[in-house]
Amino acid sequence: MRIAGKTLVVLGGGVGGLVAANELRRLLPEPHRIVLIDKDLRHAFAPSFLWVVVGRRHPERIVRDLRALVHQGVEVMQAEVIGIDVKAGRIETTHGPIHYDFLVIALGTELVPEAVPGLAEAAYTFYTWDGAVKLYEALRASPNTGGVVAILVCSTPYKCPGAPHEGAMLIADYFRSRGLTGRVELHLFTPEPQPMPVAGPILGRAVEEMLQARGIAFHPLHKVITVDGKARKLMFEGKGSAPFDLLVAVPPHQSPRVVRESGLTNETGYVPVDPKSLRTSYDRVYAIGDVTAIPLPGRWKPDVPMMLPKAGVFAHAQAKVVAQRIAAEVAGTPPADEFCGDGYCTLEAGESMAGFAFGNFFAEPAPQVELRQLGRAWHWGKVLFEQWWLAPPGPRREVLRAVVSLGARWLGVPVVT
Length: 417
Hints:
The chain has about 425 residues and is α/β, with parallel strands linked by helices. The chain has eleven helices and 26 strands. β12 (about 185-190), α7 (about 200-215) and β13 form a beta-alpha-beta unit.
């Protein structure tokens, strides 16, 4: 008897979308159809953007054609998603409509620098591949006389909560390597009360000490309201102003317009999902990664609940759970896999040194996260992970995967592969 194939559509070719599509293809045989849709066939490994900024990676080295990273049998459609009709089970794209039986939304977030007056004209960023390349050129062109470098977090939530602190430390290391220590002032401004508040006060203090040890001034509770590019000043709500010669910003984030217009988002502007299954309020529709809104135990302000951070490690783990649940549903068996809330982050500190933070973000009464001591093992672990991620499916990738997994077990830390 001929099996009726299902069409499974994944929107977005970032970390979550790529893992979801590959896992679905691995778990489901023909004639089931796996379609991965993205408007850009260039897949850039975002954790390496900071290495591009300080000249430790050639920009093209961290980019792959998306089609080279998918498993055989995954259809890659280069198109922009312009409509999501969850009631009709249809996606509208610039290449026409496609109907689905199961949908995984992994469209991530968009940067909106225009939300802060003057920011787009005055700031660089390392949150995009193009931005990292431009910032590298700006750092190279910076004068040996020194100056003030401001790293600015504009608002929350934002992707990769450790990135601003990593960026500050790597930029400090870059200027140290040029012999400019003492001539360049580095300041990190954020509206948050501490570094990575969701991870708790102990880790926050540890990160502050890492910044302090590298001569970086940390300014919490600084909410920017405007940027004066001509006067080179940041204006803060109730905190006065601060000068800069070079401004590096984490711009405001929002979910993509097509997601906001789909009826799937809540008051946060992101897609609420069941924390363990990643299921939306619509049957056979899942959302993973940065586009989701997942509340956590505890609050970092009296009126602001904590949310699961937007980070690739969570998108990766969620993608595997969703793929396994969909495959079980297609097979007619009860889905059992659940997202447990475990996550981790490598904090690059310069001089080939890094820290490693990990823990359970679903723990009660608040997330339990610890930071391992600085060491070279964490840095080289990240290098290995990068090499594994960018390798096409095949024997070399499997060898690298085994090495990463073995290293993680030896170090006693959880790593998703």
